[in-house]
């Protein structure tokens, strides 16, 4: 019989007032005890709408851990997919440091050619789960592209991407950039500096082209956000249109991450947004210049998730919990003691069966710094976060931000009520499963109680965006209404452009 997870909500008070971040810590009364009855375990995830942030998003009830049945891991041998990016690190570390084995799991990690192949592998069952773009399980659930019931019970990391421009474009914009006392460009760099470049291309009858890794990738939305914040329209998607270039000032296209440097060098694109180490690879090859990191576009933005099929989690609840525990332990290892383990992580990731890039290239962004160009390496302690800042917790509000961007650019074709955003987020992002796994680690003293947030699944309104906008996950339509570029209200996209209706 398939298991069903029952969500319970508690208002619980924070643990000790002396603890850092105590306003986010989970009171132990918010955890459920294990139950031996499978029937007591899961109701459909739609019932999660009754917990925190439901209705008008005004509830302050807390998301509690799912109850799990007693028992051994049901499926000890697993195959997980990944793309060759440094933010797959929690999976590699869980394998290499024995965290999977500690949880009774024999895990094979298998690199995938691109994000579409990876997604199809999870949906088709060739993969039990994967290092996945945060937008992929959301898009599959709403039927954008491929329709499938996927869930994200864990967020793998925060930050980790950057935008790189070709040397040709860099030479066009660099002289006019504001400089600091050291003569280096002042960051963050606004996309507004590209306006004269785009105009120059247009006068020559050439479109200005940039690359991103997948239509529902964080990279697509971050690149679009940066361009729009600088006054450049990145284009819209219409129903049945996968190009997303309608009304575009800058044309975006898909390129798999490892192929980004070669595509840039060939002149097919003039810049790209990608995860590491493929921005640093452009620096090493001297073919491009990173101009902004995603942390400078949106402070502490969520990046990848662990994606699973919903029926997998329902059928194998103990396996799912064990998988999450192993990854959480790896995340903690990666952030331990101000990154003391990062040098070892770099060596592991440089192996050909993982990222397969030179260790020096990976280290250029993985060890608390980021290189924007020769002689321009800057401190970047928040470029890769895996455990701090509740990085592993799959917040509903993170899912809602991605859904707002899908709507902003036409991938969600029609206006949706706020409740649609809440319901969709809660069907896909599963903090109850994360809390069930993390609670077991807290009980054993493996991770601190302070690393678990006390939350209704929504972050407080977030600032830290390059355009100064504030995102409140409980008010998605009000958030969309702020943008001068992008769909809002009843606006739709047709082949001839945007209609406000």
UniProtKB/TrEMBL annotation:
Protein's UniProt keywords contain Cytoplasm: no
Any GO CC annotation of this UniProt entry: endomembrane system
Domain of life from the UniProt record: Bacteria
CDD domains given in the database record: PBP2_NrtA_CpmA_like
SUPFAM superfamilies: Periplasmic binding protein-like II
Keywords for the protein's UniProt record, in alphabetical order: Cell inner membrane, Cell membrane, Membrane, Transport
Signal peptide: none
InterPro entries the record matches: NrtA/CpmA_ABC-bd_dom
Subcellular location: Endomembrane system
UniProt protein name: Nitrate ABC transporter, nitrate-binding protein
Source organism of this protein record: Sphingobium indicum BiD32
């Amino acid at each position: 019989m398939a298991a069903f997870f029952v969500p319970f909500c508690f208002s619980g008070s924070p643990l000790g007032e002396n603890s850092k971040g105590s306003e986010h810590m989970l009171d132990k009364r918010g955890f459920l005890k294990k139950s031996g009855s499978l029937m007591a375990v899961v109701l459909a995830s739609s019932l999660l709408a009754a917990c925190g942030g439901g209705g008008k998003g005004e509830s302050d009830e807390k998301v509690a851990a799912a109850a799990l049945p007693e028992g051994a891991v049901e499926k000890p041998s697993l195959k997980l997919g990944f793309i060759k990016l440094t933010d797959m690190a929690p999976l590699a570390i869980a394998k290499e440091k024995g965290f999977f084995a500690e949880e009774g799991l024999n895990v094979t990690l298998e690199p995938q050619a691109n994000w579409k192949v990876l997604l199809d592998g999870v949906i088709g069952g060739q993969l039990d789960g994967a290092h996945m773009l945060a937008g992929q399980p959301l898009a599959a659930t709403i039927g954008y592209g491929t329709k499938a019931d996927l869930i994200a019970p864990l967020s793998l990391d925060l930050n980790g991407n950057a935008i790189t421009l070709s040397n040709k474009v860099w030479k066009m914009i660099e002289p006019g950039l504001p400089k600091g006392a050291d003569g280096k460009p002042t960051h963050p760099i606004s996309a507004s500096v590209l306006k004269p470049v785009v105009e120059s291309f247009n006068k020559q009858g050439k479109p200005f082209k940039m690359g991103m890794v997948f239509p529902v990738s964080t990279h697509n939305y971050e690149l679009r956000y940066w361009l729009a914040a600088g006054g450049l329209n990145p284009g819209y998607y219409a129903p049945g249109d996968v190009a997303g270039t309608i009304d575009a000032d800058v044309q975006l296209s898909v390129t798999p991450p490892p192929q980004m440097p070669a595509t840039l060098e060939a002149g097919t694109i003039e810049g790209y947004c990608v995860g590491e180490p493929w921005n640093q690879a452009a620096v090493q090859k001297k073919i491009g210049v990173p101009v902004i990191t995603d942390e400078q576009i949106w402070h502490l933005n969520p990046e990848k998730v662990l994606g699973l099929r919903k029926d997998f989690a329902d059928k194998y609840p103990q396996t799912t919990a064990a998988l999450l525990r192993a990854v959480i332990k790896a995340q903690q290892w990666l952030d331990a003691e101000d990154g003391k383990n990062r040098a070892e992580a770099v060596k592991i990731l440089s192996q050909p069966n993982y990222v397969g890039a030179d260790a020096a290239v990976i280290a250029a962004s993985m060890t608390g710094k980021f290189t924007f160009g020769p002689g321009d390496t800057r401190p970047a302690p928040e470029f890769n976060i895996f455990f701090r800042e509740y990085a592993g917790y799959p917040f509903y509000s993170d899912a809602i931000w991605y859904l707002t961007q899908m709507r902003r650019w036409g991938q969600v074709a029609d206006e949706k009520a706020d409740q649609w955003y809440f319901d969709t987020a809660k069907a896909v992002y599963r903090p109850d499963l994360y809390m069930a796994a993390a609670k077991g680690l807290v009980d054993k003293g493996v991770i601190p109680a302070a690393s678990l947030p006390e939350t209704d699944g929504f972050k407080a309104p977030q600032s830290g965006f390059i355009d100064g906008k504030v995102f409140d996950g409980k008010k998605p339509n009000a958030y969309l209404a702020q943008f001068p570029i992008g769909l809002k209200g009843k606006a739709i996209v047709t082949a001839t452009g945007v209609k406000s209706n």
